[in-house]
Amino acid sequence: GTFAARHCLPAAAAAAFLLAAPLGAADSVATLMLRAVNGRSLAEAGAVLAAMTVAWSLGSWWQSRAVTHHRIGALVLLGTTMVAVGLVAAATALVHLPLAISYAGWTVAGIGMGIAFPSIPLSVMNVAAEGEEASELSATLLMDTLGWAMGAGFGGAVIALAETVGAELRVGIGGSFGIGLLAALMLLAIARRLPEPGQARVDSAT
């Protein structure tokens, strides 16, 4: 189990970072976008984010039942794909398409996070040595927190850069969404490397 954990922890930590970064980058500019670009009220922007949170809970509820029937890598792929598609849809508010598309995008992204987010720590628990679960999970949880912070930080930096060069606010916000989408696409490339139930015994025996 220890051998397997050591070899899967980098992939799990990277996955946690790359999953948190998209929402960190997009969520941090959502209210700004809806207020400054679309002229919506603060209450409406808050309702959109609240709906995304509810959708996240629904995704987690479904994941808790689906994980017994599906591979963890497949769940992370599904959730990440939904996050990526949701962010693209959410960003359509920047080009003045019907806001219903953007609002639906936030909901889809929330469901995707609910599916993928709990699946990544679970992949670490599958190979954690007995009694060492907390220590082996700590790196993954740290990278999750770092992903949120870095996503929001880079998103804000892009907006500041756009302002510096005289570009419209929507350009900077679009760049923030672009950072989030890039992180999600990178996660799609490594999701299948996450360990599955029973892998610890196989790796330990080889």
Give structural notes.
This protein is mostly helical and 206 residues long. The protein is 81% helix and 0% strand. The protein has 8 helices and no strands. It has helices spanning 2-37, 42-66, 72-91, 99-116, 119-125, 133-164, 169-190, 199-205. It is globular and about 55 Å long. It starts with a helix and ends with a helix. The model is unreliable at 1-5 and 200-206 (pLDDT under 50).
Main features:
mainly alpha; 0% strand; 206 residues; 8 helices; disordered C terminus
Topology of this structure?
Elements lengths: L1 H36 L4 H25 L5 H20 L7 H18 L2 H7 L7 H32 L4 H22 L8 H7 L1
Helix pairs in contact: 1-2, 1-3, 1-5, 1-6, 1-7, 1-8, 2-4, 3-4, 3-5, 3-7, 5-6, 6-7
Question: Concise description?
Answer:
With 206 residues, this protein is an all-alpha fold. It is 81% helix and 0% strand.
How many beta-strand elements? Answer: 0
Structural shape: globular
pLDDT under 50 segments (min length 5)?
1-5, 200-206
Q: Beta fraction of the residues?
A: under 5%
Query: What is the share of helical residues?
Result: over 70%
Largest sheet: none
How far apart lie the N and C ends? Answer: 11 Å
Integer-rounded radius of gyration: 18 Å
Q: Kindly report the average pLDDT value.
A: 86
Structural class: mainly alpha
Please provide the ordered H/E string of secondary-structure elements.
HHHHHHHH
Total count of helical runs of at least 4 residues: 8
